[in-house]
Amino acid sequence: MTVDVQYYVLLSMAVFCIGLFGVLTRRNALLFLMSVELMLNAANINLIAFSFYHGNLTGQLFALFTMALAAAEVAVGLGIILVLYRNFRDVDVTVPTTMRW
């Protein structure tokens, strides 16, 4: 007994919508990064579900690459957040208007 693909797609859609809501409404940089991670995980759920559905490993391989990309994104994002906190004493993404051109 296996779970149908549409349930994975619905789960992925729900996780992606939660992440998108977090990206659009949060002003804290850490919560912003967590929301982006949710969106990447939703994409991974889709990749793995369709890989299982079609019986090949291509989607799982792409999911591994996406996880590596997420790890690099977190490393760069945390570096940016540390500089943001060091310069402005806050992690609110609307504060550093002096960093614009």
UniProtKB/TrEMBL annotation:
Q: What is its EC number?
A: 1.6.5.9
Q: How does the protein's chain sit in the membrane according to the entry?
A: Multi-pass membrane protein
Q: Which stretches are transmembrane? A: 6-24, 31-55, 61-85
Q: Any keyword 4Fe-4S? A: no
Q: Which GO terms describe its biological process?
A: ATP synthesis coupled electron transport
Q: Which GO terms describe its cellular component?
A: NADH dehydrogenase complex
**Could you tell me which Gene3D superfamilies the record lists for this protein?**
1.10.287.3510
What are the entry keywords? Membrane, Oxidoreductase, Transmembrane, Transmembrane helix, Transport
Q: Does the keyword Transmembrane apply?
A: yes
- Cellular compartments annotated: Membrane
| Chief place where the protein resides | membrane
A molecular function annotated in GO for this UniProt entry is: NADH dehydrogenase (quinone) (non-electrogenic) activity
Q: Which family does it belong to?
A: Belongs to the complex I subunit 4L family.
Protein name in the entry: NADH-quinone oxidoreductase subunit NuoK
- Species annotation: Natrinema salsiterrestre
This chain is encoded by the gene named nuoK
